[in-house]
Amino acid sequence: MARIDVVMPQMGESIAEGTLSKWLKKVGDSVKRDEPMFEISTDKVDAEIPAPASGVIAEILVKEGQTVPVDTLVARLETDVTAAVPAPAAPAPAPAAPAKAVAPVAASAAPSTEKPSEPPPAAPPPAAPHGNGASLEERLRTKSSPLVRRMAAEHGVEISGLHGSGVAGRVTKKDLLEFLESGAKAPPKVGGVAPVHAGSLPLPEPWPGDVVEPMTKMRALISEHMVASRHTSAHVSTFFEVDFTRIARIRAKNRAEFEKATGEKLTYMPFILKAVVDGLKAIPVVNASVRGNEVIYRKPINLGIAVALEWGLIVPVIKGADNLSLTGLTRTLNDLANRARTKRLDPREVQDGTFTITNPGVFGSLTGTPIINQPQVAILCVGAIEKRPKVVTGPEGEDMLAIRTCSYLSLSFDHRVVDGADADKFMSFVKRSLETFPETVL
To answer: In this structure, which topology does domain 235-441 adopt according to CATH?
Structure first.
């Protein structure tokens, strides 16, 4: 008889904690090796965590909704499946306070001012081995997310000097934003978390009949990222209409053969990716990042593709997109999108993007002004691709009406480093590439 410890995994070098969002098994259930046991949320990705071995779940030690440091013991497996599993002393773990349960507000009761219960604080971390130079607490605090470290560097803030609200004092984006907005004074804490805009607006109160639902971990992180990006970058947008008629003909002509040869659906998106890659090569400042008073011109072209999920939004990254053919872009795009929707992405697959593309056009949106995905300096929005009446020039130079397949593309860019002229040059390049796409590319 042997028991195996199941711990909270470290899903990336900079991640110090994770939220156990859902148990897929309960005490007494049998699991096979690599079968999903539970779901976690981190500041990088939602993922299903597989069982390290086959066996029976003997203990569950972390409740749903609880956030714990990496390597925390969350469950134990009994590998002798014939052994009896002791009945749990208490009912199966119910979701902790930050779980997703929906709670309607009673019509006769005043809004509650009670603070939600929080998981007990983690035990003090052990001291670092001799010669390491820093305790685990200090390492956790300074290993904030890459976005926090970049923001701190841009503003000349030493993270290790701040008292964060995360595990072991880890500094979050909320903590840093509050510190910056407070005029370099110690950030006040409300319930252990520093609000992004403390004191700017009163918090709304629920009314009778309203439904109060805590944010999921992913939704809270999206909220933080969006606020931090608007706080960091000077957002400006430019809009172009692109004629996709030529690409529509190329698709219609080659679609069946392409899908038979590759097993992949040929959509408009790979053509857009190819045009964007060439545009980033021509206008490299759009494929850059800002570090204080320095501009980092990225050599790789890593395209982030926003994927809408039922529970939020995630941006998997096509690494080295400039080295891929149209077929390679299609395969990689479809693979990442499918695995994002089934929670099978590795955290490394949502990191190190240099430029992002979002496609609300699939939902019918004409266009949009998306928020830049930090630390990038631009994001492209693809609107609905549809047939429209357009005025075109006839064979003898006369004006005539024609039905064309068109779309509005918009670019949100960081005006700190990308001038309007450069943004428009990039968009003009993408437009021209799409409207003159070579048929031989397939």
So the answer is: Chloramphenicol Acetyltransferase (3.30.559)
